[in-house]
Design brief:
Length: 768
């Protein structure tokens, strides 16, 4: 009976796809595959044998018909692994690819999957479905590529899982260069965009629709019913840069960025869920630039970001803006949205930089306020009072407010004329969906121009007869189960479950390197007291902890060659070092990334340890990135250089770590680069780089620092230096803070160590 049921389902799927199989071709290698493609006719079904297909460049160029597609598929979905230096390109009509798994490799070109084989052979009416791309990254971070690039018209990416992109370039891009690719009506639907880790700079979007220089072209692309989970590549999750796109019924779950109408006009953003946690300020909502957008029926939960990552960020524009900058916001509608426990949900004039006019050219000054914009029929609920519901970075005098309601937990707020206070409760639909019950609230929805075209609400209920303000017309909708991951992505793919690591006991007589190499992800290397002398780098290529087994610190003595590290931080290498003494010979390094081929991130956390006699404490080379680097309760002494994170000198907004934290540490006799953390280039979209130096002591440091500055953090946006003591450091400045950004200092004691200055506007190289 089960086999009969599966057969019926397969037949139904083929009929629903208008596909009549006339010829099945089973292929076992690249030569057979190429022959099958070369001879393919409408209705052919090309089947790839299960197994690893390594170093294959699949050029799928053929012409099917609407009723007789040509399919290229895995023998068993998920059992055909595309590895090594490999890619896939389409050219032709009515082609389908299904069931492939790209892993353990990278593309030899700028695309993993391209909907064209060359400039003269684009794809139309083609589809990629039920496929997976995971960690298929170039070996160098600055070697940008795109995992899926659309060309042509009426193509589709659906029911796929894509995750783990670490190098530059959007995960998915729709390209409009050429008349054959405008008015494309592409569809990106029912996919699971899994975690995209922080990149440390721009060029890390999950989806980009067009580019600055095609932003006046109509795209008509639909992004619908997708699940975006921890898409943290940069401040823009979706960057819409063309006209007439629709972003509908998606879920943005704990993703550090926003949906952004970066260029182009007339985007419809309808019925999406934005789910935060009330703690992470990087989870964003919707940011608006340009003309004619409609933002309706969206639900925002615990989104507490500010400025670029606020729940609704309406930007200032540049008068007579060039294509690649910021046009003024005009003729936008924000209606029927619900905000629950969001911080300052309406922010206007975001990005205004009039105060920086002394260091920026006139062409960069964002002074054009939003005009002819309507904010109506929105509902806000706060379980904790919010005194600044509307934030005006510049005046919002071009915005019309109508029939907006707030329950602010009984507290006063500044905007009672633009938002009406009311009492109502919440109806719990699920852990992340709490809908306001506004049946008792006497506020009639504002009926603006074309508002009658908003015919349904977030849940699909009709607005035509029983309309109400907020994202839903009623508070007792059926649970949509938006976090049920089985509803999105490839049917066969399951994310690996987290396996709890085991503890591996090591004595001084054991080979420490062998123990670390044989350990699994998440394991703890527990060191007995004693001295561990090593002469070659310990390779860290997984998430692993090395710690002393007792309060008595184990001592690791590194006798390795000059400029080699005791701990070599490889791709995927996340090291936690606890309660250990670590010493070198004065010419080698304590920790360092690889110099090249860092295809994935590293990470480092050091606590309760003693580090001494190294040339570098940490050396991060160019094109390497760590999401976090932390030193806590640790002493660092008698080192030539300290923490070096300053190799990204291309001034494109890149930097080597997202979070650098120094907490309750002592630095003694570190001669230069005590802390050197750099981000260059004027790029308002890169709002990262985070430095915290707290409760620490710096003594006799910086003697060889050429610029006479102890803590170098030029271009880092978020800097907090507090409750530290600086004593007898031979420098002119402890720090120069960037006043126009989030750089602050407090309660620091300076003794014979220069001073801390604030420079309001740093002169930065323009990136555009």
């Amino acid at each position: 009976m089960k086999n009969l049921f599966l057969t019926f389902n397969l037949l139904f799927l083929l009929i629903s796809c208008n596909k009549e199989i006339t010829n099945s071709v089973f292929v076992k290698n690249s030569s057979e595959l190429n022959d099958a493609i070369k001879n393919a006719k409408p209705g052919d079904d090309i089947v790839l044998k299960d197994g690893v297909w390594k170093d294959v460049e699949i050029e799928f160029s053929a012409k099917g018909t609407k009723d007789n597609l040509i399919t290229l598929r895995a023998e068993t979905p998920g059992k055909v692994f595309i590895e090594g230096v490999s890619n896939l390109s389409f050219g032709g009509e009515y082609l389908v690819v299904s069931g492939l798994h790209f892993r353990n490799g990278y593309s030899p070109t700028v695309n993993v999957i391209a909907f064209r084989t060359d400039k003269n052979n684009v794809a139309n009416n083609c589809r990629v479905t039920n496929c997976v791309i995971v960690d298929f990254n170039k070996l160098e971070r600055d070697n940008d590529d795109l995992w899926v690039q659309f060309y042509g018209r009426h193509n589709q990416l659906d029911h796929c899982y894509l995750a783990g992109k670490t190098n530059g370039g959007p995960t998915v891009r729709v390209d409009l260069k050429g008349i054959e690719s405008i008015k494309n009506y592409h569809k990106i639907t029912n996919n699971h965009f899994g975690p995209r880790p922080r990149k440390g700079g721009a060029r890390g979007e999950t989806i980009q629709l067009g580019s600055s220089f095609t932003s006046m072209s109509p795209s008509n692309t639909t992004i619908a019913n997708n699940f975006f989970e921890e898409c943290n590549g940069e401040v823009e999750i979706i960057s819409s840069k063309t006209n007439f796109n629709e972003i509908k019924n998606n879920v943005f779950y704990k993703s550090e960025g926003s949906v952004v109408t970066r260029h182009g006009n007339y985007t419809m953003i309808d019925g999406n869920y934005f789910i935060g946690d009330g703690e992470n300020e990087n989870y964003g909502g919707i940011r608006i630039v340009n003309t004619g957008h409609w933002i309706v029926n969206n639900y925002f939960y615990k989104i507490i970001g500010e400025n670029f990552r606020s729940p609704l960020a309406v930007m200032n524009g540049i008068p007579k803006s060039p294509l690649n900058r910021y046009n003024q916001v005009t003729d936008v509608v924000v209606a029927y949205n619900t905000y629950v426990d969001c911080k300052s949900p309406f922010q206007f004039g975001v990005g205004t930089n009039i105060a920086q006019s002394a260091v920026l050219p006139k062409s960069e000054i964002r002074s054009a306020r939003p005009i002819r914009t309507t904010v109506a029929n929105n509902v806000i609920y706060n379980s904790v009072e919010d005194k600044n519901v509307i934030v005006e970075h510049d005046k919002a005098d071009g915005v019309l407010f109508k029939s907006n309601v707030i329950n602010n937990n009984g507290a006063d707020f500044k905007d009672s004329k633009r938002i009406k206070s009311a009492n109502f409760d919440l109806n719990k639909i699920s852990d992340n969906i709490m809908l306001p019950n506004i049946s008792s609230v006497d506020v009639k929805p504002y009926n603006g121009f074309d508002f009658d075209l908003i015919k349904t609400d977030l849940a699909g209920n009709s607005r035509e007869k029983n309309n109400a303000i907020g994202a839903t017309v009623k508070a007792d909708i059926t649970n949509p189960n938006i976090l049920d991951r089985s509803k999105y992505g490839a049917t066969w793919f399951k994310v690996d479950a987290i396996v709890e690591g085991k503890t591996i006991k090591v004595s001084a007589s054991d080979n420490l390197s062998e123990k670390i190499n044989s350990a699994n992800k998440g394991d703890i290397i527990s060191l007995d007291a004693g001295k561990y002398i090593i002469s070659k780098s310990l390779i860290i290529d997984k998430n692993i902890t090395v710690q002393s087994a007792s309060e008595n610190k184990a001592e690791i003595v590194f006798e390795g060659a000059e400029n080699t590290p005791a701990f070599s931080l490889n791709p995927y290498g996340i090291l936690t070092l606890k309660n250990v003494k670590l010493s070198g010979n004065g010419k080698n390094q304590a920790f360092a990334s690889l110099k090249e081929k860092m295809s994935n991130h590293f990470g480092l956390s050091v606590s309760d340890s003693e580090i001494s006699n190294f040339n570098y404490v940490l050396k991060a080379y160019k094109q390497t990135f760590a999401e976090t680097v932390t030193f806590k309760n640790t002493s660092i002494s008698n080192c030539e250089n300290g923490i070096e994170l300053s190799e990204e000198t291309n001034d494109r907004g890149d930097y080597n770590t997202e979070f650098l934290t120094i907490d309750n540490c002592t630095f003694n006799n570190v001669k230069q680069n005590v802390i050197d953390y750099y981000r260059g280039g004027y790029d308002e979209s890169t709002i990262g780089g985070n430095l915290l130096v707290t409760n620490s002591t710096f003594t006799n440091c910086g003697a060889k620092e050429k610029n006479k500055m102890l803590l170098n953090h030029r271009g880092i946006v978020n800097v907090d230096i507090n409750n530290n003591t600086f004593k007898n450091n031979k420098v002119q400045f402890v720090s120069i803070l960037w006043g126009a950004k989030n750089n602050v200092e407090s309660n620091n004691t300076l003794i014979n160590s220069g001073k801390i200055n604030t420079e309001e506007n740093l002169v930065m190289k323009l990136m555009y």
